[in-house]
Design goal:
single chain; 377 residues; alpha/beta; Aspartate Aminotransferase, domain 2; Aspartate Aminotransferase, domain 1; 2 domains; 7-stranded mixed beta sheet; 3-stranded antiparallel beta sheet; 15 strands; 38% helix; 15% strand; globular; binds pyridoxal-5'-phosphate
Length: 377
Amino acid sequence: MINYSRQSINSKEIKAVTNVLKSNYLTQGPLVQKFEKRIKNFCKSKYVVAVNSATSGLHIACMSLGIKKKDMVWTSAISFVASANAAAYCGANIEFLDISLNDYNINISNLKTKLFKAKQKGKLPKAIIVVHFAGNPCQMDEIYKLKKQYKFKIIEDASHAMGAKFKNNIIGNCKYSDMCIFSFHPVKSITTAEGGAITTNVKKYYDDLKLFREHGIKREFKKKKIRPKYYEQIKLGYNYRMNELEAALGIEQIKKLSHFINKRIKIFRTYKAELKNDLFIYPNISVNSKSSHHLFVILLKKNSKTLRDKIFLQLLKKGVGVNIHYIPIYKHPFYKKKNYSLDNSEKYYNTCISIPIFPTLSKNQQNFVIRTINSIK
Ligand SMILES: Cc1ncc(COP(=O)(O)O)c(C=O)c1O
């Protein structure tokens, strides 16, 4: 079975992690700081906070924006549930945005209409969590204009998009957002096993993010306190710290990020050139963007979930490890009470299949995937 994705780990990385096991620090320490610095340099953001997953990063990003019970938060219907859960943890009311069938990101013209109507009803969102789906960036300048007009905050869920660029802005520089979150889960651009990071250019968010990551505990005081190692809890925080083993892996992985993305670009181009089956629509990258190519999603032209499921099973049986990204979040039993049905999200869900893409996918493996898909009747 060729998985739809998998991590790429070499002996140098195994050594880096083993060295940590032999050292004094296992939990958050100097390597986490070093990894944060590497991310900061890569993304050209002012601040970085490493955490133990993108899910916790999204959660404390919402906390730092002051999202609380009954606030409105909007996010894309087509994403992993964590994009919505982050706001749900804070007690927010979540609304889902339909996608565009060109790039599978939130549909900007729908967003404009929804904001216009929300303003009339006095129900504007406090924040919008935008998702750079499959690593292809959202049209951030357009969304930023709307942020200025309607005064909401923007969190970028860039779990798929480390290494991507929008109009020459590296995702993570927060030019158009308040905070940006990456995931380092094994199938992402780089991995730390579990892990994530938040970038921001706002000192206040940075200070809060660090507090929320570490139980709400403050360790530095203007006046000298009673004794060394003195601390006080000043907010209700969490233990969302990254550990040194994860950071050691991350430091090695980030060195290979450009190489990984180049490999993914090559695989993308080969698929685009060699997938010829007319039953499907193949993805495009927005002209002004560089994608990190986290996923390669093909859509069945016929809007038929039954046929899609049949093809999905056929591919699995032949050894092509396909996947579905994603069930519209509003369809999950937890969110179902919201009673949504968004046209493009429904159509997308009925027809989508993710096919293998990851840096170590070999030429032979990719040829096999291409032959198998081209032979579907
Ligand atoms: C869009 C999106 N957001 C958030 C997450 C959560 O990431 P993590 O597993 O690092 O918590 C994922 C993970 O798959 C994701 O795809």
